[in-house]
């Protein structure tokens, strides 16, 4: 067996404390904390600093299905099968406010990038948007005809994407509250959604979305043209051999990681359209995965009750270059708005160029594969 090289992902930490399957994980913005939720109804906040005690938060009356740190890291939201959402202060006291959010299981919770609002998705077939600090219900999006598994804001907060057991992924305009597109039957000649969609998220550029399916696939669409960019099982001989339960984009936009019921995590290079790594760590289904906000780490959870933290390693050079462009110094950003805009435009251009290059690579690969 070949020795792992320095660029390979490595298992850094192994957290034990949950008493049932882990359903969700999320890093705080400074990567000092990692939150995880479980079927055991407990929310754990783990400290990345060695020898620090974890916090165990109790309050939900049933399984926790989703967790998300606010952009500032000062708040933590969780959703549960008990139909409530709780907003926690992730410190030793673990104070929380609970409110009845839906009439059925809450499957997903996600803060907008400005932290002012968050979106929830539920088995009651609705997506709801809330004001964070007033914890006030704002409006519902209700065109799905089956359970809604996941809902996420776009990076700029203007769009919401939702995925449902009605086999559709819907794109919503937050200001008009209208569904602007439904990815379902044949989209521009692409394959239809043949199964339930378990998870969906935006690419960091906001220009495309990825959806994980019960049919073992991951599909990526351009949100501007609505074209299917990559049907990853067409490009790769084998992605997963069982349902894909979760996915996460690397902050650079160059990589996508997936978690599957086949017990593996897979890291895909989106630039070259190829499988980089298959990681074996969990015994039984890998249920959730998430990159840290910088991409230096990623965490995974499984039905084996384990939470694992991995060091990425593979992203060191690429991501460093992207971060130079995409992260202006805070002082400059606050004093000169124009500079921030120009840097953001630079970042978007950089990412779109990479996506274009990625598509060209895909076409070359498929041409070579065609006899």
TrEMBL record:
The keyword Coiled coil applies. Plays an important role in centriole assembly and/or stability and ciliogenesis. Involved in early steps of centriole duplication, as well as in the later steps of centriole length control. Acts in concert with POC1A to ensure centriole integrity and proper mitotic spindle formation. Required for primary cilia formation, ciliary length and also cell proliferation. Required for retinal integrity. Acts as a positive regulator of centriole elongation. One of its GO terms (biological process) is microtubule-based process. Interacts with POC1A. Interacts with FAM161A. Interacts with CEP44; the interaction is direct and recruits POC1B to centriolar microtubules. Forms a microtubule-associated complex with POC5, CETN2 and FAM161A. Interacts with CCDC15. It is found in: Cytoplasm, Cytoskeleton, Cilium basal body; Cytoplasm, Cytoskeleton, Microtubule organizing center, Centrosome, Centriole; Cytoplasm, Cytoskeleton, Spindle pole. PROSITE patterns: WD_REPEATS_1, WD_REPEATS_2, WD_REPEATS_REGION. The keyword Coiled coil applies. This is POC1 centriolar protein homolog A. GO terms for cellular component: centriole; ciliary basal body; spindle pole. WD repeats lie at residues 15-56, 57-88, 99-140, 141-182, 197-231, 240-278, 279-311. It comes from Cercocebus atys. The gene is POC1A. Belongs to the WD repeat POC1 family. Keywords: Coiled coil, Repeat, WD repeat. CDD domains: WD40. Transmembrane segments: none annotated. Gene3D superfamilies: YVTN repeat-like/Quinoprotein amine dehydrogenase. InterPro entries: WD40/YVTN_repeat-like_dom_sf, WD40_PAC1, WD40_repeat_CS, WD40_repeat_dom_sf, WD40_rpt, WDR55/POC1.
């Amino acid at each position: 067996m070949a020795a792992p090289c320095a660029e390979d992902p490595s298992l850094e930490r192994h957290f034990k404390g949950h008493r049932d399957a882990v359903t969700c994980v999320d890093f705080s913005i400074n990567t000092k904390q990692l939150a995880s939720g479980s079927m055991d109804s407990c929310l754990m906040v783990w400290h990345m600093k060695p020898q620090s005690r974890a916090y165990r938060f109790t309050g939900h009356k049933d399984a926790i299905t989703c967790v998300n740190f606010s952009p500032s890291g000062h708040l933590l939201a969780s959703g549960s099968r008990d139909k409530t959402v709780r907003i926690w202060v992730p410190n030793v006291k673990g104070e929380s406010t609970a409110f009845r959010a839906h009439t059925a299981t809450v499957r997903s919770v996600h803060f907008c990038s400005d932290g002012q609002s968050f979106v929830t998705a539920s088995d009651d077939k609705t997506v709801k948007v809330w004001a964070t600090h007033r914890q006030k219900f704002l409006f519902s999006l209700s065109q799905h005809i089956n359970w809604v598994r996941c809902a996420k804001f776009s990076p700029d907060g203007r769009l919401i994407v939702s995925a449902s057991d009605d086999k559709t992924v819907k794109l919503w305009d937050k200001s008009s509250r209208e569904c602007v597109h439904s990815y379902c039957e044949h989209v521009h000649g692409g394959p239809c959604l043949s199964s339930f969609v378990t998870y969906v998220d935006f690419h960091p550029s906001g220009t495309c979305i990825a959806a994980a399916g019960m049919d073992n696939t991951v599909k990526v669409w351009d949100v501007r043209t609505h074209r299917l960019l990559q049907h990853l099982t067409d490009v790769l001989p084998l992605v997963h051999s069982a349902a894909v339960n979760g996915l996460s984009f690397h902050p650079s936009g160059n990589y996508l990681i997936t978690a599957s019921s086949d017990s593996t995590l897979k890291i895909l290079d989106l630039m070259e359209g190829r499988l980089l790594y298959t990681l074996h760590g969990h015994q039984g289904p890998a249920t959730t995965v998430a990159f840290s906000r910088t991409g230096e780490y990623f965490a995974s959870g499984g039905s084996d009750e384990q939470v694992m933290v991995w060091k990425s390693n593979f992203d060191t050079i690429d991501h460093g270059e992207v971060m130079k462009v995409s992260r202006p110094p805070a002082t400059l950003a606050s004093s000169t708005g124009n500079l921030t805009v120009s840097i953001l435009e630079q970042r978007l251009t950089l990412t779109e160029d990479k996506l274009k290059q990625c598509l060209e690579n895909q076409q070359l690969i498929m041409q070579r594969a065609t006899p």
